């Protein structure tokens, strides 16, 4: 089966099928990507852990922060405790709400509140880091000799002095005058 055909079938399955989680499976919200097809997710009770993306979804389906997924638990995992089984889109979520299966911890108002709280936490962390960087910048300016120098690039020294700029202006004026004289002839 070609890559395009495989992609077509995977996308059709994700967008077209409406499934319900079984007893072992769980609905979780994605909190972010940790790289290497690992995603941090949170349960309705607030427990966080890593999920792996199965190979059939890789490079075919993308998920982002705030999306919901159905997860199969991995018993033997230390860090990675689940594998994504199905990605839920708006139509799937509405279907699960109509059936009464949707977790109460993920109601719309609660999700918005949690996202806002996390955004506030991230803002305070970034402000604290900026203050620390500002404090470090004062001492770093004195230690510019310790900076990494890229040896793959030619070093060019730029110097601005009044004499150089006056000479450049004078030579430009002389060239302009010579061009005007040539035109007059």
Automatic annotation (TrEMBL):
An annotated GO cellular component of this protein is:
nucleus
Keyword annotations of the record: Initiation factor, Protein biosynthesis, RNA-binding
Where would I find the S1-like domain in this sequence? Answer: 35-92
InterPro entries per the UniProt record, alphabetical = EIF1AD, NA-bd_OB-fold, RNA-binding_domain_S1_IF1, TIF_eIF-1A
Q: Does the keyword RNA-binding apply?
A: yes
What is this protein called in UniProt?
A: Probable RNA-binding protein EIF1AD
Which stretches are tagged as biased composition: Basic and acidic residues?
Answer: 115-128
Q: Which residues form a coiled coil?
A: none
Taken from the record, one Pfam family name reads eIF-1a
Q: Bias category Acidic residues: which stretches?
A: 129-146, 160-185
Mark out the compositionally biased spans (Polar residues). 148-158
PROSITE patterns per record: S1_IF1_TYPE
Where are the stretches annotated Disordered?
115-185
Q: Name one GO molecular function term.
A: RNA binding
């Amino acid at each position: 089966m070609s890559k395009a055909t495989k992609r077509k079938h995977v996308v059709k399955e994700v967008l077209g099928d409406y499934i319900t989680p079984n007893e072992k499976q769980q609905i979780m919200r994605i909190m972010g990507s940790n790289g290497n097809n690992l995603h941090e997710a949170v349960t309705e009770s607030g427990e966080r852990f890593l999920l792996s993306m199965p190979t059939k979804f890789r490079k075919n389906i993308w998920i982002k922060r705030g999306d919901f997924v159905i997860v199969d638990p991995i018993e033997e995992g230390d860090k990675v405790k689940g594998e994504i089984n199905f990605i839920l889109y708006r139509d799937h979520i509405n279907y699960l709400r109509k059936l009464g299966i949707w977790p109460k911890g993920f109601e719309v108002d609660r999700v918005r509140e949690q996202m806002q709280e996390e955004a506030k936490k991230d803002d305070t962390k970034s402000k604290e880091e900026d203050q620390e960087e500002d404090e470090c910048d004062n001492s770093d300016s004195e230690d510019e000799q310790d900076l990494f120098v890229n040896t793959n690039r030619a070093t060019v020294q730029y110097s601005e002095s009044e004499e150089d700029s006056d000479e450049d202006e004078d030579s430009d004026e002389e060239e302009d005058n010579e061009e005007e004289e040539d035109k007059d002839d």
